[in-house]
Design goal:
This protein has six helices and two strands, in the order H-H-H-H-E-E-H-H. It is mainly alpha-helical. The N and C termini lie far apart (about 45 Å).
Length: about 160
């Protein structure tokens, strides 16, 4: 039995339109994390990297911030997804191994609630895995409609 609302012809977006929300979430998420590191002062992030034993903390800090901003913007616009996925994957795997793995899977650890609101513990690696899944979906599925890559391909084909 096929439900009529599940037929591809009934969807307002093309069948590859599923890519757009993933691009928006992953791209914006990476950019937001990079911008937060800038807003709180890059040295603060660099000090954290040094404290957890990351070698060449100043260099790695700036590479991470730049990678999050540039790669996030590329994903958001649908540009060079296979290329920009590599530093994004490296950033996520490093975060999992160095920060989140000891905290377990769950990203939401409600510890208590009082007049000041909810209080949460350290996040686990759940969100990092979701970002990795989104990146892999984009690499395998392509940038989709409304992407810079598609626009560039059309332009080269028509030249």
């Amino acid at each position: 039995m096929t439900l009529p609302f599940l037929r591809a012809a009934d969807h307002p977006l093309p069948t590859e339109g599923w890519v757009i929300p993933i691009r928006l979430i992953v791209g914006y998420g990476f950019m937001a994390h990079g911008w937060a590191k800038i807003a709180h002062g890059p040295q603060h992030f660099i000090d954290i990297l040094a404290a957890i034993g990351i070698p060449f903390a100043p260099l790695m800090g700036w590479l991470t911030i730049t990678g999050e901003l540039v790669c996030g913007a590329a994903v958001l616009t649908g540009a060079f997804i296979p290329l920009v996925s590599l530093p994004m994957i490296a950033i996520l795997l490093t975060a999992i191994v160095t920060v989140h793995l000891p905290n377990g899977f769950s990203s939401i650890k409600l510890q208590g609630f009082d007049a000041g609101g909810a209080h949460f513990g350290q996040p686990g690696y759940e969100t990092d895995l979701l970002y990795l899944a989104g990146i892999f979906a984009l690499v395998l599925g392509g940038p989709g409609p409304l992407s810079l890559d598609r626009w560039l391909r059309r332009r080269v084909a028509n030249a």
